[in-house]
Amino acid sequence: MDVSVTKRGNPHLSSTAADGDVYAGLVRAAAAGDATAMEQLLIRAQEVAFRFSLLVCGHAPDAEDVMQDALMRTYRRVGTIKDPAAFRTWLFRTVRNACLMKRRKRVDEPARVESLDEPHGFGHSDGTSAPRDVATGGKGPEELALNAWLGRRLRRALAALPPAYRMIVLLREMEGLSTREVADVTGMTEVNVKTRLHRARVMLREALGSEDAA
Amino acid sequence: MTGLPPVTCDSLLAQISAYLDGDLNGSACAAIEHHAASCAACGRVIEDFRRTTGLCRTAATAPLPADVRARARARVLELLKRR
């Protein structure tokens, strides 16, 4: 078995810089008046918002509002950006904050606020976390969309993770941000990001293994 | 004697993310690869981690549902039309 997997040999890690470059290029072009670039950038911003909102926050009704928020903030931001390379980090931070604001405004959840930053986000006294809509929700359109997007197997495995770990997986593994960028978005240290990513990978592997065995 | 730092199954699991993310030096990587070459279980663990990462990355590149994309595009066109 070939086990010589290195950063250089891992195609999933090599896309990080390229993804950031794409965003930076779109920002520069959009700021210069390129309508196509602006359109693509605004659609990407909403896609980021959709993925983050549904996968990390797990509250389907918020997704459309968070997408709208990302759209407007990106549109207003483009003309004032000094460092296009930093746009992607700004976008994820903005989306994360929008999700947090939506959560705080929800009147029916003050007793079980799910933190995006704590590994055991539901505040259960026993330190456990219960997966939310992303895992156990009904058959609403967003849940079905998640199945269609991620596949039932990966969705269930991700759902077994605490929200804070899902956020790290989304940003690092799925969206391709670097450890430094994830730290910037979340306000964690890089060491903390790496620790949580490792734990999340261990849990994901176990969950996917269970799915295989089921 | 390989001259490489010793690696056990437990220490490999603890370092596997650092290994896959390119955070280990050449000697540490070689030691992990040397261990995994002779330990089928650890070889599978590395493959599992690699596959998990790949699964996530592939999912991220999949297009969003058509209705979500259509609404996103409609919002953009509406916004750009107003400016």
Describe the structure.
The complex is a heterodimer of chains A (214) and B (83). Chain A has 214 residues and is mostly helical. In chain A, 69% of the residues lie in helices and 0% in strands. Chain A contains ten helices and no strands. Chain A has helices at 11-31, 35-57, 60-78, 87-105, 133-136, 141-150, 152-159, 163-174, 179-186, 190-213. The radius of gyration of chain A is 18 Å and the shape is globular. Chain A starts with 10 loop residues before the first helix and ends with a helix. Residues 1-15, 110-114 and 121-137 of chain A have low confidence and may be disordered. Chain B has 83 residues and is mainly alpha-helical. Helix content of chain B is 77%, strand content 0%. Chain B is built from four helices and no strands. Chain B has helices at residues 9-20, 26-38, 40-61, 66-82. In chain B, helix 1 (9-20) runs parallel beside helix 3 and helix 2 packs across helix 3 (40-61). The longest helix of chain B has 22 residues, at 40-61. Chain B is elongated, with a radius of gyration of 22 Å.
Compile the SSE list and pairings:
The complex is a heterodimer of chains A (214) and B (83).
Chain A: H1 11-31, H2 35-57, H3 60-78, H4 87-105, H5 133-136, H6 141-150, H7 152-159, H8 163-174, H9 179-186, H10 190-213
Chain B: H1 9-20, H2 26-38, H3 40-61, H4 66-82
In helices, the fraction of residues of chain A equals: 55-70%
**How many structural domains of chain B?**
1
* Count of helix runs of chain B: 4
Count of folded domains of chain A: 1
| Average pLDDT of chain B | 91
Instruction: List the secondary-structure elements of chain A in sequence, H or E.
Output: HHHHHHHHHH
Low-confidence stretches of chain A: 1-15, 110-114, 121-137
> What is the general shape of chain B?
elongated
**Backbone CA Rg of chain A:** 18 Å
